[in-house]
Amino acid sequence: MRVDEVPIPVPQPHQALIEVEWCGICGTDLEEYRDGPVNIPLETHSLTGRKAPIALGHEIVGRVVESARDGSGPRAGDRVIPDVVLGCGECWWCRRHQEGLCVRSAVVGLHADGGLSEYVAAEAATCVPVPLSLRADVAALAEPASVAVRALRKVPSPIGSSLLVIGAGTIGLLVVQVARSSGVRKVMAVDPEARRRELALALGADAAFDPAELEALSAETTEGIGPDTVIECSGVPGTAREAMRLVRRGGTTVLVGLHGREESFDLLDTVLGEKRVVGSAAHLWDEDVVTAVTMLARGDIDGDPLLTTYLSLDQVAKGFDALEAPLANAALKVLVTPHQAYLQATSGSTTP
User: Fold this and answer.
1) Given this model, what pLDDT does residue 351 score?
2) Of 75, 190, 289, 336, which residue is 20 to 30 A from 123 by alpha carbon distance?
3) Of the candidates 74, 62, 66, 75, which has an alpha carbon nearest to the alpha carbon of residue 115?
4) Domains by residue range for the chain, with CATH
5) Quick check: pTM over 0.90?
């Protein structure tokens, strides 16, 4: 991985050219930095026509500098969140507006050049407008927040329910807030870091546990029944099995966290307990991203406590190192900007 000089993207007629203001980095980007190419194609991708080298970055907010030549989407000067999930538009899933399940699906920042750059070309029709009241750095949380929104959509009946979130990183803390705003009666979180447990409580969790005390306290908090829903956000090997075990009989486990290994589970407990297990990954621009932007703008999601590190583009390696360091170096969401002036204007910014 390197910082490099490349040509400004030339957008297709249906694309807008966006000047990036901020771009977040996450665990998927960290995998590419540490072990890549992992998802980035070494052979030409059938949908995007691209292969490595590719610019990373899919948590993007920016201003439109050239609107789409076909007249679709936002106008020049508008601040937007570009949708990063791409489908072929022709397959069985795309015709049902399930682009994330497309057999040729692609993600901007993995299969096409992303937002760790000065400019990015994006599908104009699926760019989501950002209200003037929402700060650009907070708006950069829209993509991870849409992951949380998508996960809550997989919960059959959130109103009045109990919900346990495993992993209080950025996604887990966003899930806590979306759950609270969705009418969940009791929200619990588990994380090995005391600071993150404290933050979960500050952002709306009713209880936060260390993994060592999870079993007893979770059972006590739910009167021995177990939570109605468990949302696994850590991606740590073994936690999917634990999530499926902890959920009550007849409850739902939503798997959000990822790793590259196989997971075993207790078939007897799952079948006889009539437990439901569902994955949650690809968000939709008009359902999940729009909702995430609205919740951020309305204050249903408080993004400020999650923004721990601001860096310029030439410092991006420090951001990856911060996420990889023991206890994540106290970092939650690392934001990167190609504009030095934006970095200087950000109050309370921190660096690793």
Assistant:
1) 43
2) 336
3) 62
4) 15-144+284-345 (3.90.180.10), 155-279 (3.40.50.720)
5) yes
